Amino acid sequence: MEETDKALNRAEALLEAERCLYCFDAPCEKACPANVPIPEFIHSIMTNNLQGAREIIEIVHPLIETCGKLCPEESFCQSVCVRAKIDSSIKIRELHRYVTDNTDPSKNLNISSKRKVKIAIIGGGPAGISCARELGRFGFETVIFEKKELGGVPMQQVSISRFPENAGKKEIRFIHDNFVTEVRDKKIISVKEIDDQFDAIFIATGLQGEIDLGIKGMNLKGVYFATELLKLTRAFIKTPVGKRAGVIGGGNVAVEVATVLKQENNERDVELIYRRGLKELKAFKDEIDEAVNAGVTMQFLAIPVEIRGKNSVEGIVVKRARLSKIDASGRRTFEEIPNSEFFIPLDTIIIAIGQKPADQFVELEKNGKGLIKVDDDLMTSVKGVFAGGDIVRGASTIVESVADGKKAALSIANYLNGGRNV
Amino acid sequence: MYKEKDISIDFLDIHLDSPFVLSASPSTDEMEIAYNGLKEGWAGVILKTTSVEENEVNLKNPMMSSFGPMSNKVSGLGNIDLISKYHINDIEGRVEYLKKEFPGKMIAASIMGAKKEDWQSLVYGLKKAGADLIECSFSCPQGSMGEEAGKMLAQSIEATEKVTGWVKEAADKTPVLIKITPQVTDIVEVAKAVKRGRADGITASNTIPSLLGIDIRTFEPYPTLFGESSYSGLSGPSIKPITLRTIAEIAKNVDIVISGNGGAFSWQDAVEFMAVGASNVQFCTLPMHYGFRTIRDLKSGLAHYLEDMGFNSPLDIVGKALGKIKTNEELPELYTRSDIDTEKCIGCGLCYVACSDGGHMAIQWDSDKRKPTVDEDKCTGCAMCMQVCPVDAIKMREKLDDAVHYFLEKR
After folding, report:
1. pLDDT tens-digit profile of B330-368?
2. Residue-wise pLDDT tens digits, A205-221
């Protein structure tokens, strides 16, 4: 599996940078959850000041290599680009990537003098790492609790083709070496385990639990969760998936795993099975395009009813749906058509209908979905304990987790300084 | 094929099938190249400047360099070229040959000499060969020969008049153009000296002495010859505004025929040159960059323009703008203000920044609506905002009534 090579060369980057209007009070910058000063870094590309461009992005965004590859720009900066009113939006993410691909982390970041303050960060994903970098800059000691490799979702659940093996490692290594005091290989399920050792705690575990279909046959051989298969493919281990696979779901993970399984074995039929229609898919457009190009087929308006088989999966019974009224997300929802069951023969079924919080941190207030409740400063119901990223938002983007990590760091600093800004 | 509109003119009694001729340059140095240019449709050639045998030429290479924004690499082209390595004897033969092959085209040659005998023997040779016109380079940026070698001849009023006189004396009825430089204290005085010397016209103007750039890692100037370089003659779009000013000043003050040269890159540029007083237009950087094929759009663009404007001949354009060029004191004091078309505005905020940091802080910015508004009391009508608007949504309007002053639209 080769990386989908979209990287701009120098000539393309300069031409694209030249198209940028250099807007004042730029909407792209405001739409970016990390508030990257986009027109300014693009201007620095134009003057061939790439390291300067990197510094502009890096100061506000600790994970720029990761986001340069994975940020769904269609949801943020690019969707509001003023240039689109003249011809078409600037390819902002590709310019961002051009900068990160061609530079190293800046050695010029100011670090405040060390303070005798120690913060625990539970989870080494985008939110946790971003928080650690910011706290490290403030001069705080940071201890990250993480049992896996630092990096989180991109390192474990994104296909190699979209996020190559070495992607993002340079900057994570850099943050680890310069801003993280210690990484402890320990799973924390309650703040009580550690609250006497730290001045504040930031919880950024992400969503560790799998949502299952809740239908008959989930225990049959040949039923997998998407995330476990993605982890295998990232480790270059062949998946146990057979010749006819059905992927249940319509989000990014579903579309991504379908693509990866088709790419792993082109002889294999991979069908995405989704309750709504093409326009209702939650996955980003470029991921859907990639799945279609790979040869994934799509079974829309199909509601799983029962997985059938003796010991192993033999297929799935689905019920036909039709599109119904528009829901809160602006997408059409679905309704069942009575007596419309039909059977799809399959040897493997992959569940990709989302993840949920693991059963942990019972001492904190949660909402109905088990997500941790926080105030405007990301502080939980327990004083000095903060939380951010997917464990607060539900499934969201990397850049939003980065924004939470940054915000939590500032809140923690303010909290420890008695409200004085750092 | 389409019917061709007649865009021919008479220039110093020479019939040109269009106003567009190839200037003395590498495009007219080799016989075969000049031949190809005429065959492709250019109205005439001025063969690259030549001199007498004893004036040795040591050309230095690489001689070309350029600068410009990325997508338009050559907005300015520089050269450290000298006159042709071919001497007058070769050139005479070429004039004869080209005249025979292209009887309907203007075959001219450019000369440069040191002494009176040089200048006059060059003229006699070209006359004998049948040259339609003789152009004299008084303005090679690498310097002229003769009394004040190294300086440009046209920078001396006295020398300009004297040498022009020598040339015209020898040329007699053959038309003579003197090619001058804009790099003088008073271009009008130079033009008057040319007229006093009895030349038939002026070529305004030559490339401009310049330095094309410095490599900021090695500090080597461009074009680098093993680390060293010299001043270049600058041509191309970047010098067009200077040429326009030069032509206009001469045309407004001296009654003499002008051949426009220096920075014209399109038929529109040529029309502008003619509007300020040029009777024809010479091209060099355009064909050097994109080839002789560019003559097709020059001719077709001009023909359609004449049609649109209801002009019968390209000469109808000559001097059309001159009456509108005034001294600063003569200009009226207007009370204008910036007028932003909110329908056209795309909300980039560039006018706000420009007015805030380089104007009069007269534009307010609504961050939520992304709309600029003009504070009429603060606005002086300087038009800086208009220059930066990417969608031409800004006009300048009279403050007291509704008369709208349209400024030249951006191309």
Report:
1. 998 888 889 999 999 999 999 999 999 999 999 999 999
2. 999 999 989 999 999 99
Q: Domain limits at A66?
A: 10-101
Q: Which of A101, A128, A149 is the last residue of a domain?
A: A101
Can you give the pTM of this predicted structure? 0.87
- Reported ipTM: the value is 0.84
* CB neighbour list of residue B169: distance below 8 Å, 6 or more residues apart: B120
Closest CA to B280 of B29, B17, B26, B4: B17
- Quote the number of domains for chain A: 3
CA-nearest residue to B348 within chain A is A23
From the list A11, A25, A46, which residue is nearest B349 (CB)? A25
Is B140 known to be catalytic? yes
DSSP annotation of A233: H
- Residue in B347, B352, B365 closest to A82 by CB: B347
Shared domain check, A93 and A59: yes
Task: For residue A85, give how far its alpha carbon lies from the nearest alpha carbon of chain B (Å).
Answer: 6
The pLDDT assigned to B68 comes to 85
- Are B9-324 and B332-405 equal in CATH topology? no
CATH code of the region B332-405: 3.30.70.20
- B interface residues, A as partner, C-beta within 8 Å: 69-71, 346-350, 352-353, 365, 367, 370, 390-391
pLDDT in tens, B105-147: 999 999 999 999 999 999 999 999 999 999 999 998 888 887 6
Would you call A82 and B348 a contact, using CB atoms and an 8 Å cutoff?
yes
List chain B domain ranges: 9-324, 332-405
Q: A1 pLDDT exceeds 50?
A: no
Helix axes A252-264, A226-234, angle to 10 degrees: 50
Task: Please give the order of strands across the beta sheet that includes A118-122.
Answer: A182-184, A141-145, A118-122, A200-203, A385-387
